[in-house]
Amino acid sequence: MIMLGNYTLTTSKMQIEETPLARFRRLIEEQYMQNPTGCGNSFGEILCHELHTQKLTFTRIAEKWNISLEILGELICDHCKRLGGDPEEALKNAVEKLANSNPNYSQNYSQASSREKGVDVTP
Questions:
Q1: Measuring CA to CA, which residue among 119, 113, 120, 121 is closest to residue 75?
Q2: Helical ranges in 1-123 per DSSP H
Q3: In Å, what is the CA distance from 22 to each residue of 29, 56, 70, 74, 80?
Q4: Is the separation of the CB atoms in 40 and 29 below 8 Å?
């Protein structure tokens, strides 16, 4: 058995199997492709759209996507790992970039972050 990113290659059967996280991500992306929001089609763009544009909490996103908070936490953790580097630095840079393009963003982000305190989404 060989791991290839989100997929497992079983050499005896030459079959590629999708990991559970890859499946959730793909299904979410497909839902947004069928009902476009104009935010883009990648999981990262969709997640940012729901958090920062729609101002949904983690709980509301999990409900909207019909997944548990634990699965959402795993998806977000996986997304941050894919960004590479230091996740805190990446988040800081993203917030600064958005704040420069939208003066109300940093205030909205702070309010959304404070609403999420106390919600444990770690797997």
A1: 121
A2: 20-34, 43-48, 58-65, 69-83, 87-101, 105-116
A3: 10, 23, 15, 11, 14
A4: no
38, 48 in Cβ contact below 8 A?
A: no
**HSE-CB of 33 using CA atoms within 13 angstroms:** 9
Residues shown for the chain: 123
Mean pLDDT by 10 residues, the chain (123 residues): 57 72 92 89 91 91 91 87 72 63 49 40 34
Record the pTM: 0.57
Of the candidates 52, 123, 121, the residue with the CA atom closest to the CA atom of residue 91: 52
